[in-house]
Automatic annotation (TrEMBL):
Keywords: Membrane, Transmembrane, Transmembrane helix. This is Uncharacterized protein. It comes from Bradyrhizobium arachidis. The keyword Transmembrane applies. The chain crosses the membrane at residues 12-31, 40-59, 91-109, 130-153, 165-185.
């Protein structure tokens, strides 16, 4: 499967088409109320592209690995590069943060709800926003770093691998998708959910009843008026 995508012209063109679709969809969503965020994403991408483009040109001219440019600080540079480009570690870190921040609140709500003293989970939307924007910034950073190498090769008259171009642009596109997804979850989804509950009063009533039971022994002032 991977050989088709990266080993054939048709596969590469398909990836480019998907990238353009993702980029267009995400930027369309962001342009409504988050034009400044689009500029910020491009700034991060451009910063790391230019930084690593310069380093890649120097490394290619010297015919030496990128980390060797750091001299005695090579180990530190390798660790920093891994931090900026290790997708697996980034995903695991974000997942751990989200789980540790939200899971205890949900478990606490369920357990304390037995005695009617449950407190609604707090900062859930903020945590989700942090997670998705962290991933978005990581991906556009990775995209900028990834695309620097083939551009450096072109600058020096070397033949770059088309796969490197595609991967670099794709990473950037995925970063925009994460940003657009955050807007959908935190801004669009609540409105859709509210509209759904307004139409499906039985579901809304069931959720309201369950919450009232879970908070039945809380002082009335600690419960939102619409839930009393």
């Amino acid at each position: 499967m991977m050989d088709f995508f990266f080993g054939t012209t048709s596969g590469l063109l398909l990836i480019v088409a998907v990238y353009l679709f993702m980029f267009y969809s995400a930027t369309t969503i962001l342009m409504e109320r988050h034009a400044h965020e689009i500029s910020l994403i491009w700034y991060i991408n451009s910063f790391f592209f230019l930084l690593f483009y310069g380093l890649e040109v120097i490394a290619l001219k010297k015919n030496t690995p990128l980390a060797k440019l750091c001299g005695s600080s090579e180990v530190t540079c390798v660790a920093l590069y891994d931090y900026l480009t290790n997708m697996g570690d980034e995903f695991r870190l974000v997942i751990v943060v989200v789980v540790l921040a939200i899971a205890p609140q949900l478990l606490s709500y369920g357990l304390s709800g037995i005695s009617g003293t449950a407190s609604s989970p707090k900062f859930v939307s903020q945590i989700g926003k942090f997670a998705l924007w962290s991933l978005a910034k990581f991906m556009v950073t990775l995209g900028g770093i990834s695309i620097a190498h083939p551009f450096a090769q072109l600058t020096l008259g070397q033949a770059p691998n088309a796969k490197d171009f595609v991967l670099g642009f794709a990473m950037t596109g995925i970063g925009f998708v994460y940003a657009g997804f955050e807007v959908l979850i935190n801004e669009k989804l609540p409105k859709l959910l509210k509209a759904y509950l307004a139409k499906n009063t039985s579901v809304s009533a069931l959720l309201m009843k369950a919450h009232k039971i879970a908070t039945r022994n809380l002082p009335r002032g600690e419960i939102a008026p619409e839930l009393q």
